[in-house]
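Input chain follows. Return structure tokens only.
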Amino acid sequence: MDDLSDLYQEIILSHNKRPRNEGELDPRSGDAEGYNPLCGDRLRVYVRETESGKLDAVTFTGEGCAISRASASIMTAAVKNLSRAEVEARIAAAIEMLTAREDPEIDLTVMGDLAALVGVRHFPARIKCATLAWHTLESALKGDGGVCTEEE
């Protein structure tokens, strides 16, 4: 189990140091800002949907702790080229995995790098760091403009 924990830590550090899909997206069909006042994480998530409803691009900008940045990076890769319904299902699954009281069963073939964040559940103060990007993506898709973790 220690080897798996080490692997998960490496994945988080890799996504933090070299985030995937970081930067503004132009043109875009939506964006939203997410803020976690507990640790100061502030992200903006940008989305672009095709006419057929697929998310062909998702990017983010902002500053935050390693967990929030890694989660945002992982998220952008996990939802690219999915339909809106698939993205909504992936958001729900990610949030459920990160907030569930019971240890979730993780299918690495489905969850990919997102599985690396499962250990965050053992540190309640960090759960909001890990879910911020996912809530912000949801807000960008709905056109809500943004979210604050203290309003959840």
